[in-house]
User: Fold these one by one.
Assistant:
Number 1:
Amino acid sequence: MDTIIIEGGKPLNGTVEISGAKNAALPILAATLLVGGTHTIKNVPDLRDTRTMLKLLETLGASHKREGRTVYVDTSGLSGAEAPYDLVKTMRASVLVLGPLLTRAGYARVSLPGGCAIGARPINYHLRGFSCLGVTTTLAQGYVEARCETTMTGATVYFDIPTVTGTENLLMASVMARGTTIIKNAAREPEVGNLIDMLVAMGAEIEGRDTDRLTVQGVQSLQPATTTIIPDRIETGTYLIAVAATGGRVDITQCEPTHLPALTEKLRTAGVTIEEGQEKFTVSCSEQLADNRCRLESVDVKTLVYPGFPTDLQAQFMALMIQADGTSIIHETIFENRFMHVAELQRLGADITIDGASAVVRGVEPTGLCGAPVMATDLRASASLVIAGLAARGTTEISRIYHLERGYENMIDKLQALGATIYKGSSSLV
Ligand code: EPU
């Protein structure tokens, strides 16, 4: 099985270009199901997850063609309405086909995703939202069957928690529903805004973009559209943190600086210099130690919905705090089980104690961090191990790297170009 081998302790320098956002590409690809024809999606990252979504669209009868960063999806002839367990188990975001299939075909059968490495992650709010629109949902043999005998009818839907994919699913289910749908306590993540732009380009009428109250006026018809995927803010944040952890100076280009307000604030407080430009960050140390690293102060972090600190950067930020001066409390409020990386970071010498939903991270001297074999448990945990491996002295070998390939485009190449010693290996032990 493939592994990633890192010889740590080197600063990162140069320029890294950010790819399109995985979590924007997935709902937008699903949205192509809403109306038959050829949709043009630009800046689509080539990742395991986007390939899985395209495979799922194929099983539903769509076809696609990739030319560089642009993907053309032809959804003229749909021949199915089922997302099979084999695909859903590898990518939970497969549930995003529920909303568009209900609009297009009035019926969808999608395997329930089950729990995952970061929490139980039920889809009860998605299903409750659909039922407000007049959809009947039943559960049989591990599959959700959703059916609407007549056209869906607009309704007011309130989410107890502002769920990201729940909001996206409801938007896609309501764009052609009769009358008005109001989504209260909607997610405000930039990826939701990107989907709204796509839906509006298709002819949908949606008000309230970037707010927690979305109003959808159902329309009679939609047409295929052209959309550009926004830059991946989580990939951007991962590189910002990586440079903070190793020292050096890096230009991060083709990104959207306004999408990371909480992270940049926390990094600056920790002692990192971040300059913001047009689609660009430049990151370096405010104060450099003798070995080129940044002098880092501990800061506390609490994950929250956007524009709060993203849960998808919690693990990476912890990998930074393990070498900061003092103690940092990292509080995870979105997912109940998102500390799987802690035991692996401890193998590198980190001093972390978990106390319920909080991790108490006592910074150790950078010289106290030493490479070791570690195992990736989920996508963002993998990124945190890469960051810790880049910062630690000696060799770190990360196994189960398929998690990383789900969400980071060409990460090894990008880090090599910045001067890191990182390459693919293989191990028969994992
Ligand atoms: N929740 C429910 N019931 C629901 C829906 C959500 O209880 O019906 C709970 C979840 O269990 C969680 C919270 O509500 O505790 C928020 O979950 P949300 O629904 O917002 O998460 P998601 O839509 O499943 C997306 C991203 C995740 C990201 C979260 C939070 C995609 C494809 N996935 O998941 O991304 O962590 O929002 O921002 O957009 C990743 O990229 O590594 C990743 C996990």
Number 2:
Amino acid sequence: MTDLNHLSPNSPILLTASLHVDEARKAIASLVTDLLQESRSMNNASDVESVSLDQAINRILAEDLLSPIDVPAADNSAMDGFAFNGDYLDGSDNIVILKVLGTAYAGNPFIGSIDMGECVKIMTGALMPHGCDTVIPQEFTESVDGSSVGFKKNQVKRGENRRLRSEDLQSGKAAIKAGCLLRPSDLGLAASLGIATLQVHRKLKVAILSSGDELRPLGQALDAGSIYDSNRYSLTGLLNRLNLEIIDCGIVRDDPASLKAAFIDAASKADVLISSGGVSVGEADFTKQIMQELGDVGFWKIAMRPGRPMAFGILKSVNDSGRKALFFGLPGNPVAVMVTFYQFVRSALLQLNGASQTEAPLTQAVAEEAIRKKPGRTEFQRAILGRGADGKPTVKLTGSQGAGILRSMSEANCFVILSHDQGNVAAGDWVDVALFNGLL
Ligand code: AMP
Ligand code: MG
């Protein structure tokens, strides 16, 4: 198992320093790898199940999807026009006149074959008639006497406007690779091969809980100093993007016995436990004490903003699926919860569930205004991606960037990610951007 202690603030190395975001990500990925290996060697129960296409969105494909057919199944036309034998084509601007023998429709092919001097009117998707290898698009032809068409020989090259059998997919080859997070296009692709069910990894079970004496459930009046628990709702929304099973463990009070009982309960049911709150300075000692008994958990001070304190590790008890649960103790601040989920939890969940690609895509845009940034920490600022007058992508921050200001997330459509070593950004500089769409 990966030793989390050397990454824990208890260790001498980190007493003064904070953990770089990339180091934290690496430590998480390597622990997930260990956990997967361990659970594979301990238990042979398959974690694969069949689902119909309409249930498969955002699930992770467990085995290569082999195409049972060639796509296209036969040569066909890519254009509306006339199919003929390309022997005539010599690149000259001479005109050739061909007699039209009939029409080939998609789903209703032309029966018969074509000789020199003949052609068939053809629609997009219609099978290429025997003897034809080229299609001249309709717009390059002129009708001659109502029964023939004429066109210049240099207007098409031999073989053009024809889709070849199996040019898209060959029978027996992988149409979609194992580990793919299934998107709408993948479901359409499977359907185009006549495949109605897919083999996917079983849904991960993810338990969530909020910790804090000040938290109240929705529907209850707020007394002095209390606030509504919003983190479970943003976490539920984030998790729902991944089509997994959520186990809601509610609000837990800041008292050791309740927290311990909640963690033990969650660990017995779930593959992953995500809590929020209770890991910041002051409270961490309290959670730490419980975690020492229940698992191997590092309490990290991460060089990032927002989201500095975070706990991560494994819980010792084994759940229903024969696996130890991963534990993420996220900070309590509502924006920090979303940022740490994006940066650490999402990729770990994907990796644990067999995905081959776990990184979210990044792009770049021009900062519309100067952004203050201290080197030595990674920052995730909330922003709106737009387009400048010159057509270049631009980003504008969404007002106040405090870790508790959830409105900054709600109004934003992306993070501007300022890397660890980066300093102040000047207006007009290019910055890294992660779009929320589909992720958060
Ligand atoms: P903590 O990490 O527990 O010190 O919490 C940091 C801040 O986040 C405090 O202002 C908490 O009141 C707030 N907070 C913690 N948990 C939640 C939650 N579930 N929903 C909304 N705010 C929270
Ligand atoms: Mg708290």
